[in-house]
Write a structure and sequence with these properties.
Keywords: DNA-binding, Transcription, Transcription regulation. This is LysR family transcriptional regulator. Residues 1-53 form the HTH lysR-type domain. Belongs to the LysR transcriptional regulatory family. The chain has helices at 2-10, 13-20, 24-38, 54-81, 100-111, 124-132, 195-207, 221-229, 275-282; strands spanning 43-45, 50-52, 86-92, 115-121, 138-143, 151-164, 185-188, 213-217, 235-238, 250-253, 260-267. The chain contains nine helices and eleven strands.
């Protein structure tokens, strides 16, 4: 097909041979073999050069389209092999959707424009299992996680805040101590959803001299905050939830040294095409992102 297109565009076997860097006899033989295979005359031989027949003009149009597809397929294959093109199935915890995920998508779009990210909101535990089962390529979870079979890279560290009802005795303060919550009833999520984060929140209370009295649980942060707003208890949340929360619960920083939670990427080592590793590497500058800038 490439030989035929060269002859059709040059309208000369000799000029086409020069363009293709081959001698003229093999080129003539190839075109003759092509005409025999198609059972059609593609060129009219003229005293000087050649002209396309009607069949040749139709074949030229098809050849150009096919060769364009071949070039595109080759380019796409090379990009996939180089980890520059493809689809990444990514999970994320809900608390990262308002601030961190948009930054991740922006960076991927800039540094890896041929990569499509498919997002699914899941708990940390659900993501861990999905990555291990190859149902997700990468997860954005609260760490630590309870498996050593996955690679992790921290991308965000942000402080905990207390969340209390608007009419609560602490609501008017600029900051509270963790110990100020000792007598309160708490609203938490089940430990099975994110054991690392759950244990970190409980240890925050234990280090202040008390064990939290967990009276209510909910799966999603928005539901937990709604229950706090209803006066069912207090809770501990990531600071960034202030961005997406529209209810009446009040967010209060903790006094003293800040207490942090971490969000990390998790993935299986040695993925076949290297696309996940390239995505992770492209997000490294986010490690110092504070979530509210």
């Amino acid at each position: 097909m490439r030989y035929f297109v060269a002859v059709a565009e040059e309208r000369s076997f000799s000029r086409a041979a020069e363009r293709l860097h081959i001698s003229q006899p093999p080129l003539s033989q190839q075109i003759k073999a092509l005409e025999d295979e198609l059972n059609a005359q593609l060129f009219r031989r003229l005293p000087r050069g050649v002209a396309l027949t009607g069949a040749g003009a139709a074949w030229l149009k098809s050849c150009r389209a096919i060769l364009t597809q071949v070039r595109m397929a080759a380019q796409e294959t090379s990009q996939i092999a180089a980890g520059m093109l493809g689809t990444v199935r990514m999970g994320t915890v809900s608390s990262a959707l308002a601030h961190l995920v948009p930054c991740i998508l922006a960076q991927v779009g800039q540094s890896m424009p041929g990569t499509k990210v498919e997002l699914t909101e899941m708990s940390s535990r659900e993501q861990t299992l999905a990555v291990l089962r190859d149902e997700l390529d990468i997860g954005l979870v609260h760490t630590p996680i309870d498996t050593a079979d996955l690679r992790t890279r921290q991308v965000l560290r942000e402080p905990f805040y207390a969340a209390v009802p608007s009419g609560h005795r602490l609501a008017g303060r600029k900051a509270v101590a963790v110990s100020d919550l000792a007598s309160e009833e708490f609203v938490f999520f089940p430990r099975s959803l994110a054991s690392g984060l759950f244990d970190k929140m409980v240890s925050l209370c234990v280090s202040a001299g008390f064990s939290p009295k967990i009276h209510h649980t909910a799966r999603h942060q928005s539901t937990i905050l709604q229950m706090v707003a209803m006066g069912l208890g207090v809770t501990v949340v990531p600071r960034s939830l202030q961005r997406i929360y529209k209810g009446s619960a009040v967010f209060l920083p903790f006094s003293g040294a800040p207490h942090y939670l971490e969000l990390s990427l998790i993935w299986q080592d040695g993925t076949a095409d290297g696309l996940v590793e390239k995505l992770v590497d492209s997000l490294e500058p986010l490690r110092d992102f504070d979530g509210l800038s």
